[in-house]
Amino acid sequence: MSSPTRPVRLALAACAAFLAAGCSTLTGGSPQADPVAWVDSVCGATLPFNDAATATPNLQFSDPAAAVQSLSGYLESTGTAVQGTLDSLDAVGPSPIEGGDAAVEQLQSLLTGVKQAFDTTRTTLGSVDTSSPETLTATLPAALAPMEDLRRLVEGTAALEVSPEFRAAAEQASNCRKMPDLFGG
């Protein structure tokens, strides 16, 4: 079984690309004139997802039932964190950075795809028969297929250009500094 954190890290990289392009939402929140404060709010909205996604599930492959249960729990908690991030992004408010509103819509779309992949995989894992190694070997790839779809989704969206205004604001924003890998620094 491939590492479940690889697609998650790819999702974070794509999220970073969206964030680096400048983000906001068209709903909720009051306009913020200060790009640093606004970017700090955007990064703050992504912290729960970042924290959950970078946690590593305890996969004991010598006990397939425990490994599947641990992976399912990881997907559930990370899916919940994604939903929290989506809800928080709704409250960030309009972007003071040109192009930010469109970028956050793309980020929300990507995160919705991440959540759907996690939820689908978790639901499918619940029906995997872990008592038979043969059955497990035959059914596990299909159960994990949404994660492969997620990898393709993330790879297809990770090539956005970085906004210099956003990067400058992110370098000053305390919440962005809590995720230095998000911006390659």
Number of strands: 0
**What spatial form do the alpha-carbon principal axes imply?**
elongated
Helix content: 55-70%
Radius of gyration: 18 Å
Sheet/helix structural class: mainly alpha
Count of distinct structural domains = 1
What is the makeup of the main sheet? Answer: none
Residue runs with pLDDT of under 50 for 5 or more positions: 1-28
Overall mean pLDDT: 75
Terminus-to-terminus distance: 31 Å
Strand residue content: under 5%
Protein name: Lipoprotein
Organism: Pseudonocardia asaccharolytica DSM 44247 = NBRC 16224
Keywords: Signal
Write the layout of secondary structure elements.
Blueprint: H1 5-20, H2 35-54, H3 64-90, H4 100-125, H5 133-157, H6 164-172, H7 174-177
Helix pairs in contact: 1-2, 1-4, 1-5, 2-3, 2-6, 3-4, 4-5
Quick tags:
mainly alpha; disordered N terminus; signal
Tell me about this structure.
Keywords: Signal. This is Lipoprotein. Residues 1-33 form the signal peptide. It contains seven helices and no strands. With 185 residues, the chain is mainly α. The chain has one domain (5-179). The longest helix has 27 residues, at 64-90. Residues 1-28 have low confidence and may be disordered.
